[in-house]
Amino acid sequence: MSKERRRKADPARSLALLWRTQEPASRGTGPALSVDRIVRTAIEIADADGIDALTMRRVSEALGVGTMSVYTYVPGKAELLDVMVDAVLGDLPRPSDVPGGWRGRLERVARDNLALYRAHPWLLRAETTRPVLGPNVLAKYDYELHAVADIGLDDVEMDAVLTLVLGHAKNAARVALDVAELERETGMTDDQWWQTHGPWLEKFMTAGSFPLAARVGTAAGMAHGAAYGPDHAFEFGLQRVLDGISVVVADRAAGGPEPGKTL
């Protein structure tokens, strides 16, 4: 989480920005300045260079205006990040004809959120457990809840199921980002690392007292071309998460334990 997101943003100003309840009129003869234009510029900077590179000065330079002009529309970086989060969540697709029933719908939710994190890695640091209360965040939550509406779960269980699926997507995105950052820092891909270390690992582990670890580790490494396969982990984990949810759904349909008691 970024330091700016840990700071207390002014709730009144943040909500006013999120819901665009008031916005100064643009002045001057250049391109019109607005909250939307500032936010989209900030997103471009964060996408390209990361959240640490995002400053109000950097945004103003990219826009070709003075820093104080940006502050006229957005009071600070904490509030700016709130609106950035809401804006990118509004870019998620919301198809109404996803096949496969509730399972297909949840699978689509997971994949779309993973794609969003991969497109905007800074979002992993900008989001917190206290959601931004913007229109796009609420619309996203409402849309995704419909994936599990009318399948026998109570309201708390619906929220818990969605939290579980989104958490899996977010964790997969975080690990994939770690892999990418490690490649940049070392100048070595996971495949190159495995080609160098794999034979030595197999030699030492086979000669030692860990035959099971040697067999499984070697098989997994050869399958993934690395010590860890983020795509495989996401796909395997997603199906197991959905399998677990299917047990709860079937239990509710069969008149199992009172909804809300277990998940």
Observed structural traits:
13 helices; single chain; mainly alpha; 263 residues
Structure description:
InterPro entries: Homeodomain-like_sf, HTH-type_TetR-like_transc_reg, HTH_TetR, Repressor_TetR_C, Tet_transcr_reg_TetR-rel_C_sf. It holds the Pfam family TetR_C_1. This is TetR/AcrR family transcriptional regulator. Keywords: DNA-binding, Transcription, Transcription regulation. The chain has about 260 residues and is mostly helical. Helix content is about 70%, strand content about 0%. The chain is built from 13 helices and no strands. It has helices at about 5, 10-20, 35-50, 55-65, 65-75, 75-90, 100-120, 125, 135-145, 155-185, 190-205, 210-225, 230-255. Helix 3 (about 35-50) crosses helix 6, helix 6 (about 75-90) packs parallel to helix 9 and helix 11 (about 190-205) packs antiparallel against helix 12 (about 210-225). The longest helix has about 30 residues, at about 155-185. The model has no long low-confidence stretch (mean pLDDT about 90).
The 3D shape can be described as flat
The number of E-state strands comes to: 0
Counted by DSSP, the helix tally is: 13
- What share of residues are in beta strands? under 5%
The biggest sheet, with number of strands, parallel, antiparallel or mixed sense and barrel status, is: none
Gyration radius over CA = 23 Å
Please write the string of helix (H) and strand (E) elements: HHHHHHHHHHHHH
Global mean pLDDT: 89
Which stretches of 5+ consecutive residues score pLDDT under 50? Answer: none
Distance between the termini: 29 Å
Helix content: 55-70%
Assign the structural class, choosing from mainly alpha, mainly beta, alpha/beta, alpha+beta, or little secondary structure.
Answer: mainly alpha
